[in-house]
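User: Can you help me understand a structure? I only have the sequence.
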Amino acid sequence: YKPEQIPDDVSALKQYYHSLGYFDVEIEKDVAIDESPWNPLSYKVAHAIITYRIQEGPRFKIRDLIIDGNKIFSKDELAANLKLRSGDFYNARHMSKDVDGIKERYGALGRTFANAEPVPRFLEEPGTMDLVYQINEDRVYTIRHVDVRIHEDQPHTKLSVVLNRMMVHPGDLADPKKIRQSERRIGGQIFTQNGPDAPRIQISKVPDKPNPNRSQISQASVIRGQSPEPDIVSLESLKSNSLIFGTKPSIRGQSPDESNSDPEGFGSSVLKAQTPPPQYPFGGNTTDPLAVPELPPGQIDLGVDATTTQTGRLSFGVGVNSNSGVVGSIVLEENNFDIWNFPRSAEDVYTGRAFRKLRGHGEQFRLEAVPGNVVSRYLVSWTDPYFNDGPFSLGVSGFYFNRFYRDWTEQRMGGRITVGRQLDAAWSLIGSLRMESVNLSNPTKDSMGVVAPLLKEALGNSFLSTGRIAIAHDTRDSPFQPRSGHYVTAGFEQAFGEFSYSRVDAEGHQYFYFLERPDGEGGHILSLGLQSAWTGADTPIYERYFAGGFQSMRGFQYRGISPIDHRTRIGGQFMFLGGAEYLIPITADGTLGMVGFTDFGTIQSDKASLQEFRVTAGFGMRVTVPLMGPAPIALDFGFPLTKQTDDLTQVFQFTMGITR
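Assistant: Let's start by predicting it. Here is the structure, written out as tokens:
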């Protein structure tokens, strides 16, 4: 019991209520000491009982939402995507997102320090207020220099590893959103992602050069309550981190004591360092960010600090699921690889300096062995995400694969060359060349001892070579358990050589996040997905489409949905699958959740149609155990609502694994 902490707790409670619009909240505290002698477990130990009595008062509604000071964008343009509207209850988190959204819109024009200051106007009518966004559009800034500082015990990482991950470069408009995205892109496999050593980008304003032919705008006449412009700006300070308001308004129900003072970083002085809104001689409808002759573009320098992390990893794991049985996993990977730095001694190998002794180039090397009772896979791969320090990626891999299918045993050995191009933050283009030697054995026979013709044609050794090109648009907030955004991809593949056929495919997933708590967590996630594909008549049986199993159609066995010939599941030329899943968190931290789902689709032998349509519905559990990796344990019960006579059903399906 620390009585000196009680005022801070009262202040935190008030701030929470204020963030939800309860500005008249009153909180009283009582402290009692319990010295009950009857409890043997607390002999000679007193207990403090703290009681908080809360009178919430009215929750304030926004009567009018006003935007003032804008000239480049109209009020309707700025208000179009706001979360807070007239008539809504005040919510500080939504207001903060609106402020960030307005600043992001100006930031895309290079107006790095544009600001939207929320100012409350409390009205005489109880529980009502107006909210004013005071816009300061400032001027355009471009990037002059990018200075990279890599912190590591033994310098070996090239500066280009950081520069390649930057989304802004000298000469570009200084868009704060792209600068923040650059911070996130730098952190990860090579550089520390979180904590005090996480990548940091500082913004330094370049002093303006005197121009005798232009009247100087006074920098002393700043907006009321603001301090002079700083020379160095933290990127964090460009974000809206206020829970209530960026200035210090007189909020009803608050007393001017220290417990209600602004916390550190609250209403950063960086955002209070803007010049007066400029006058636009050509009117306020222009969208040209450089069309402000009184305020010519300024310049900034970026200082990037990054600390290398452990880039090599040797991991051991084990997994089990209803599709692939039990598998082990041994993975050796290095994410700061340089293929041209060969080891020169045994010491280089022992100390881990091999292939990165002089300068790590940010290449990725992976050696993987996954033996199992049903499926086994062995892989070696090398990828340069920024080949020759350019915008293209290059990858080369070789693999061996073995699986015991229901109707045959399949072995594959081959390689793949991949070239990619990240067009922007969301769009990417990728092309690949695949060559494989495939061996099929142990075929299934019908009661007369006859092997299905498609399977018979593919028995023994065959050689498969294909070229593929695909485009993707990815706006997901995370590749693991995404909560919002979408992923859409489409591709075309052409086989040549022993087999000659074409195939096209498309896939899309959309994620929605809603019903979250006021802190933004604990929300429900709705996931929608569709995929469709077609392949030509010369496609070998091992490249045709099947359905069923986890991540396909739950309620059916793995590859339990397929056209059948001579008791053999031969797959189809056309596939159409879709589904929806609704996740409800059970625990506050989201480690335990319940899902309801439906899957649907069909596999057609030689025509594109939606006949023989299957539908399943079911429920399941998701359990996330941090020590077992990012993927949750999934336990699903699926019940087919419509099926075909020869389909193989399976109600319970699961997947789980652990990696160390």
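Now, to help you interpret it: Residues 405-659 form a domain with the Porin fold (CATH 2.40.160.50). The chain has three domains: 3-55, 61-208+226-309, 405-659. Let me know which part you'd like to focus on.
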